[in-house]
């Protein structure tokens, strides 16, 4: 079954949202928002700590502990995860999975070590991809700001080989723009790997979620703005999916 996953970008203990990873504005309290989503049909949640300095990491561990007490659905935490110890702290605080991006690019062995220590099911490889002038996609690091030079499709394959259990694929070009997922990028990654892929970046409507399920074989669709701003509810999205023949979980 396809999953609907709200994403909460957390900065200094508050949920924020921007465009192209910039211009952040405050949206609310992460624990309250997580609880609301959990009670209203979300299949999973993703938290991204976008101010992951040492202090930000401490703040995030506190948030994770509070969220774990409030929600009954799985949730992933990413942002600033650099070591196996960081992963352990987040999992111990109550997260079900941990998202790793920049640290994996810097040291790919981290994915292998983490998968062996904590299990592949807990390791989500976050891939932020941006299209280049030649039509290929490069992996971006440091919050979408730095071009790693890595080909995103080849990198996704390597992440699977290293032991990642899932890929969270974000189109940097579409982030926050709300004109639909990058279907070409999403299909390229989904077709290249056998592990589940979560589509992220660009969702502006329930229709966009239906479209990414109809046109690619992603396991889940992630969205932020449309849910945070109450433009559409998760139950409405699931109803539309079912009407269009997309098999989604939940009532």
From TrEMBL:
<dbReference type="InterPro" id="IPR013785">
    <property type="entry name" value="Aldolase_TIM"/>
</dbReference>
<protein>
    <recommendedName>
        <fullName>Imidazole glycerol phosphate synthase subunit HisF</fullName>
        <ecNumber>4.3.2.10</ecNumber>
    </recommendedName>
</protein>
<feature type="active site">
    <location>
        <position position="9"/>
    </location>
</feature>
<keyword id="KW-0368">Histidine biosynthesis</keyword>
<dbReference type="InterPro" id="IPR011060">
    <property type="entry name" value="RibuloseP-bd_barrel"/>
</dbReference>
<dbReference type="InterPro" id="IPR004651">
    <property type="entry name" value="HisF"/>
</dbReference>
<dbReference type="GO" id="GO:0016829">
    <property type="term" value="F:lyase activity"/>
</dbReference>
<comment type="subunit">
    <text>Heterodimer of HisH and HisF.</text>
</comment>
<dbReference type="Pfam" id="PF00977">
    <property type="entry name" value="His_biosynth"/>
</dbReference>
<feature type="active site">
    <location>
        <position position="128"/>
    </location>
</feature>
<comment type="similarity">
    <text>Belongs to the HisA/HisF family.</text>
</comment>
<keyword id="KW-0028">Amino-acid biosynthesis</keyword>
<comment type="function">
    <text>IGPS catalyzes the conversion of PRFAR and glutamine to IGP, AICAR and glutamate. The HisF subunit catalyzes the cyclization activity that produces IGP and AICAR from PRFAR using the ammonia provided by the HisH subunit.</text>
</comment>
<comment type="pathway">
    <text>Amino-acid biosynthesis; L-histidine biosynthesis; L-histidine from 5-phospho-alpha-D-ribose 1-diphosphate: step 5/9.</text>
</comment>
<dbReference type="InterPro" id="IPR050064">
    <property type="entry name" value="IGPS_HisA/HisF"/>
</dbReference>
<dbReference type="InterPro" id="IPR006062">
    <property type="entry name" value="His_biosynth"/>
</dbReference>
<keyword id="KW-0963">Cytoplasm</keyword>
<keyword id="KW-0456">Lyase</keyword>
């Amino acid at each position: 079954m396809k999953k609907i996953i709200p994403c909460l970008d957390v900065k200094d203990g508050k949920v924020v949202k921007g465009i192209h990873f910039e211009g952040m504005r405050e949206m609310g309290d992460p624990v309250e928002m997580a609880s609301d989503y959990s009670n209203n049909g979300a299949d999973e949640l993703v938290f991204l700590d976008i101010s992951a300095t040492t202090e930000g990491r401490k703040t995030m561990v506190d948030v994770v502990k509070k969220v774990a007490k409030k929600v009954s659905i799985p949730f992933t935490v990413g942002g600033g995860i650099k070591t196996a110890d960081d992963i352990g702290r987040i999992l111990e605080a109550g997260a079900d999975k941990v998202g790793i991006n920049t640290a994996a690019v810097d040291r790919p062995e981290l994915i292998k070590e983490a998968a062996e220590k904590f299990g592949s099911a807990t390791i989500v490889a976050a891939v932020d991809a941006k299209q280049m002038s030649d039509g290929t996609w490069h992996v971006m690091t440091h919050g979408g700001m730095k071009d790693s030079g890595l080909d995103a499709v080849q990198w996704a394959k390597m992440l699977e080989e290293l032991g990642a259990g899932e890929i969270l694929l974000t189109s940097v070009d579409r982030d926050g723009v709300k004109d639909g997922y990058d279907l070409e990028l999403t299909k390229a990654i989904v077709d290249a790997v056998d592990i589940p892929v979560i589509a992220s970046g660009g969702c502006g409507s329930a229709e966009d979620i239906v479209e990414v399920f109809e046109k690619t074989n992603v396991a889940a669709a992630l969205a932020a703005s449309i849910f945070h701003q109450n433009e559409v509810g998760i139950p409405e999205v699931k109803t539309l999916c079912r009407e269009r023949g997309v098999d989604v979980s939940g009532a």
